[in-house]
């Protein structure tokens, strides 16, 4: 099963935007992400609808973060990208009348709910500003200025 890496990708793009401070084009962001500009525009379009980013057309235009990074949580971003499934595992549903399957599924359902609640609570607790601070700590530890924006 292919993993959904949209949240990771969006966080990556937003950190580049936060670091630059000015408008960045879809093409610039796509270069940083090693993807197509259309993919970036599609992702950022959802974030624009959620009020997390802003876009300006024309010369000098591009994408900017619409709020302070300290006011944007990973949960905000997760919600803006459509709340993709957090768990790859699921219940077996081949025999819904089977009491063994019902017992197993009830236990799994409770575990999945608990795990998702913990993960979403963690998403609510981590801001884009905290991720940017971690990036800066990592850059300082690396101490090689030629590695722009952490790409090596």
UniProtKB/TrEMBL annotation:
<dbReference type="InterPro" id="IPR036390">
    <property type="entry name" value="WH_DNA-bd_sf"/>
</dbReference>
<dbReference type="GO" id="GO:0003700">
    <property type="term" value="F:DNA-binding transcription factor activity"/>
</dbReference>
<protein>
    <submittedName>
        <fullName>Transcriptional regulator, BadM/Rrf2 family</fullName>
    </submittedName>
</protein>
<dbReference type="InterPro" id="IPR000944">
    <property type="entry name" value="Tscrpt_reg_Rrf2"/>
</dbReference>
<dbReference type="Pfam" id="PF02082">
    <property type="entry name" value="Rrf2"/>
</dbReference>
<dbReference type="GO" id="GO:0005829">
    <property type="term" value="C:cytosol"/>
</dbReference>
<dbReference type="InterPro" id="IPR036388">
    <property type="entry name" value="WH-like_DNA-bd_sf"/>
</dbReference>
């Amino acid at each position: 099963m292919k993993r959904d890496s949209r949240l990771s990708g969006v966080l990556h793009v937003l950190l580049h935007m936060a670091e630059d401070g000015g408008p960045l084009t879809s093409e610039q962001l796509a270069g940083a992400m090693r993807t197509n500009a259309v993919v970036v525009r599609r992702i950022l379009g959802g974030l624009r609808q959620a009020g997390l980013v802003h876009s300006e057309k024309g010369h000098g235009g591009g994408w900017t973060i619409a709020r302070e990074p300290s006011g944007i949580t990973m949960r905000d971003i997760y919600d803006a990208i459509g709340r993709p499934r957090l768990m790859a595992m699921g219940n077996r549903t081949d025999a819904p009348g089977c009491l063994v399957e019902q017992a197993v599924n009830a236990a799994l359902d409770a575990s999945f709910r608990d795990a998702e609640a913990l993960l979403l609570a963690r998403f609510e607790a981590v801001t884009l500003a905290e991720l940017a601070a971690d990036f800066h700590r990592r850059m300082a530890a690396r101490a090689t200025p030629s590695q722009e924006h952490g790409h090596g």
